[in-house]
Design goal:
Blueprint lengths: L12 H15 L8 H17 L6 H5 L3 H21 L4 H15 L2 H4 L11
Helix pairs in contact: 1-4, 2-4
This protein binds magnesium ion.
Amino acid sequence: MIMDNGKNKPVGDIEEITKALLAFRDERDWEQFHTSKDLALGLSIEAGELNELFLWKQGQEAENPNLDRLGEELADVISYAFLLASKHGLDVKEIVLNKIASNARKYPVEKAKGNATKYFDLK
Ligand SMILES: [Mg+2]
């Protein structure tokens, strides 16, 4: 937690990350390239790079990826997600917590615990 907004109000990590991403972008005058479409494509492409870490691996090999590369690809995916959320004024904490609440309603513990069935097939 940092305190840098001049109001002695804690600034969350999500806001700190978003500010750093926007500063990096703006220093390079890259906002002109950050259309919604291209941010979404970038996220998807980086998700593909993440998947590549697991391609053709099985069992323990798949469960033990190179952590440096895993961290880099996760950072790429998260960065594009944060930039896209920021572009549309979406609060990352709010949308993720809302989605968890929505999923909790779809997957009640009493039906979903230890069960990987899709919500519409839960009994
Ligand atoms: Mg990457």
